[in-house]
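Margin note from the TA: students keep mixing up input and output lines. Inputs are the sequences; the output is the structure of the whole complex. Example:
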Amino acid sequence: MANTAGHPESPHGAPDGTRRDFMFLATGAGLAVGAGALAWPFVASMAPDAETIAAGAPLEVDLTPIQEGQIVNVFWRGKLIFVRNRTEKEVKEASEVKLADLIDPQADSARVKQGHAKWLVVYGNCTHLGCVPIGHQGQYEGWSCPCHGSLYDTSGRVRRGPAPSNLPIPPYVFESDSKIRIGEEGGKAVA
Amino acid sequence: MKTTRLLPASLLAAVMSVSAAHAEDEHGAPHPPREKWSFAGIFGRFDQAQLQRGFQVYKEVCSSCHSMSLVRFRNLAEAGGPGFSAGQVKELAAQYKVKEQNDAGEDVDRPARAADAFPSPFPNEKAAAAANGGKAPPDFSVLAKARTYERGFPLFVIDAMPFVGYSEQGVDYIHALLNGYEDPPAGKEIPTGTYYNKYYAGHLIAMPKPISDGQVTYAKNDKGEPVVPETTEQYSHDVAAFMAWAAEPHMMARKALGLRVILFLLVLSGLLYYVKKKIWAKVGGEVHGLQPELHKTY
Amino acid sequence: MSAHGNTYVPKSALAKWFESRLPLIGLVHSSFVSFPVPRNLNYFWTFGAILIAMLVSQIVTGIWLAMHYDPSAANAFNSVEHIMRDVNYGWLLRYMHANGASMFFVAVYVHIFRALYYGSYKAPREVLYILGVIIYLLMMATAFLGYTLPWGQMSFWGATVITSILGAIPVVGETIQSLLWGGYSVGSPTLNRFFSLHYLLPFMITGVVVLHVWALHVTGQNNPAGIPIKSGKDAVAFTPYATVKDVFASVVFFAFFAYWIFYQPNYLGHADNYVPANPAVTPAHIVPEWYFLPFYAILRAVPDKLGGVILMFSAVLILALAPWLDTSRVRSCNYRPIYRQFFWLFLVVCVLLGWLGAKPPEGGYVIAARICTAYYFLHFLLVMPLVGLFETPKALPGSILETVTGPGKQVSGSGMPIGAAAAPSSKG
């Protein structure tokens, strides 16, 4: 660098033109990389912070106080979850529906944990635009959404639009017959 | 040109030297001695074992009066800290109870989780004050940054500079305070509920000597020998280091990133200097009228 | 001087369509590309660009911090610690913002003293200069409001002391005070409105900066010789010449800035501000941030409350009168052998006032502060007018080109980096 400073240069292309071009390019690239790197912390700071992540640790729910037929609301990571203790009739209705009749075909057995068929655990926001459907209402006695009239059955499956899909199932495990842990799957807390 | 500046410069030097000789601050407390800290300086790093010992001292001694409400149990397992495992943290947290509201709206105790803050020894500030002679013991969370001492001109300028700089006055003070209990000078009245401390501003501190030699038993090494001495000197170093981490849990990440950022900026400014030189070299040609188009508009 | 026209010629049809409806690209082109820059500018002239970079940095980091900050007395302190501990890179954003304020003032003081040394306030740049003083005032207000936001002891007591200053105003003082407080003392409503105003003022600064740059582009830049551009040979085009120099200087400045962020992030603040605000206990030393210290020293130099307040505000406002107090026809101190000495004395007095502002107001410190305060005002009221009348300035060069190449010579550009040749004039 020092020797080029005093180097005579012709106006029509310097003897060290290639090196100069390379240095100009390197500088431009350096500025671009610097700007990109500077943007990173700003973007990263908008992601959930450590406190929010820690507060989203798995949540234990005691099932004993939930009566048959009752729906209980719980919140995990700020999201509403319905825990429904289904009656035998409701379980029967849900499992006897023909898959071909469904908008989003899924067997009831795939929506509950094996051996715990009476417990339905689903996210509580309509898959249309996120309103909270009202329990035990509508033609299928599952849920009925007050916003745009979507209907769900006792398995939380959509039976009438505009909602496009079934109420999703959050990750959870049965710790015992009367206790579930939401936010855990396969023995590990979900990320 | 030299003489132009000589007068103002000597004036500046003369006035500032007045304060340079002060070894004591305005409260008559001597400056805490400067200690060696593994985390000082540009390449400073926390000593994991020391942070673990410091946590032990805090837990077994200090935490009976001092809260640390901004530190969460999970922080103990985070990078750049004492390096406990997630399992250890979970176990540790479970030893504490925290209040939680149940479905009936009542406050009930539940075991603490990793996400919880260190529980405070008193339910609230008023209770803490009432139990400690009217003044609540300060919270430890950022205390290492909240305490300092003034070194005066010109040392304060040197303290800001790279490589010779220093910003560990807070931990120096904490270490000095814990070792600063001594008999009051003859004739000095010590009001009830206060104790004489050499380094405390005004010397009369409400906290009795909190820690003595042998009070905390550290884990031994494989051969059953002590790793560090179990003395007040060692305890105060360890707990001060732990408090430095608690006050600035991302310090190691900060210093590591800083090195990369500053080196990058220095290389980039070197490149830019070259580019600037090359571009301005053309102006030399312009004087000969070789690039008349440059100014055709003026 | 301002003869430079709009040289931007749109090439594409779309650009032509747009330019005939809103000549925005042409405006940018004439201001930042073809704008003629005196070729003898030294590196002190890069601080304008550095200041713009700092303003952008402060606004951006501030907006991001506001995403996590809670402006209530109960939560403010903890929300700042939440940013420091839990938010990804939150510590970086906060330290950038806190130290950025100091760096902003470092740059603005270099900028101001450069203007004072080279006579940049003199005709025809009076409006340009006064807009600068207004920016400085707005910066001070913004910095003060911002320092209250962490709601530590210095925040609380700084707010209390400074708002009490306003109580000194006769008749309306107490009303203004309670309107600022939103209560009977500094409290949560005060913090909340200070946050709102702290968010507002930077955009007002941006507005005045636009006017400042506009005024600059009407009169053109001053330069170390203090003489106008007389021909094209005195100037270079803003881009690439000034642009590359400004970018280089800004990157160097940011390296300096980064040192504070990463290695001395709390040096320029006060340890007491890590103690949560406590209305029952005042810290042992109430000291403002370093950039306010000279004015704080002036405030305390006067034993009278109202008198001190008047003097402190006068100290800032008197800056705006410099264009009319300075009677010299010559701008640059390079050609003013006598006034130049007074300039350096003034600079030293300002530094001394800053140092005295951090000292307890007792004994010799008060006497020294009074002497320095007296000189501060005499410099403007006596030295500037009188020296201008009696001083014999050195002969001015014939042209800017001459200051770069030497008088009457057409020195070849070869073998000599012309950019660096402007350096001798920077030695003052």
